[in-house]
Specification:
The protein has 182 residues and is of the alpha+beta class. It is 45% helix and 25% strand. It is built from four helices and six strands; from the N terminus they run H-E-H-E-E-H-E-E-H-E. The strands form two sheets. The protein has a four-stranded antiparallel beta sheet with strand order 3-2-5-6. Helix 1 packs antiparallel against helix 2 and helix 1 runs antiparallel to helix 4. The chain is elongated, with a radius of gyration of 25 Å. 13% of the residues are buried.
Length: 182
């Protein structure tokens, strides 16, 4: 009886070492390559937006298409922080209360508002200037990306460990706008 249990354990261990571990390593390598490709695409997209100061529908479509080549769907969240200068007054109705300084405030524009400018419900032509999202020097843009579904390696680890928890990849890239579109 003990000999049968040892043989069964040996078969299970050999299956694990011969098939599951190489499969896990292969999935992890594929996931790493896909995530590095997506990260590189995100960096290139953000740097292009920062250099041009404008976001066009073609730029966004090319970026999402390039992300799709990695084999995963991604959740994209984009934020634009527009820099605003406000004079500092004790009483805004009285000019004599001006403190000779300006306050810097950032106005947030969320992902949905940016996309609604790029892809409006009204049928504008592809080259219509109303479909461009303009930014100014000193503004900030931030892009957050994470996979929409679990990665293959994560699913295999969940199955092996019989657990529902696994780390989810996500990252953010962004920076200050360096130029403005004319």
């Amino acid at each position: 009886m003990l000999n049968g249990v040892v043989k069964l354990l040996a078969v299970l261990l050999s299956l694990l070492l011969l098939f599951v571990y190489p499969l896990l390593e292969s999935y992890q390598r594929q996931d790493d390559i896909a995530m590095m490709t997506a990260y590189r695409s995100a960096l290139h997209f953000v740097d292009t937006v920062r250099d041009k100061g404008v976001l066009t529908p073609d730029m966004y479509s090319d970026f999402t298409a390039e992300l799709g080549l990695a084999g995963y769907e991604y959740v994209i969240e984009m934020e634009h922080y527009a820099k605003r200068y406000e004079p500092d007054y004790d009483d805004p109705l009285n000019e004599s209360t001006f403190h000779e300084r300006f306050l810097i405030r950032y106005e947030l524009t969320a992902h949905q508002d940016i996309v609604s400018v790029l892809f409006p419900e009204q049928p504008y032509s592809k080259d219509d200037p109303r479909r461009k999202y303009h930014m100014s020097i000193g503004d900030y843009i931030q892009l957050k990306i994470k996979p929409a579904q679990p990665l293959r390696s994560e699913m295999l680890i969940r199955w092996l460990s019989n657990s529902d928890e696994s780390p989810q990849w996500s990252w953010s890239v962004g920076g200050m706008i360096r130029n403005e579109a004319a």
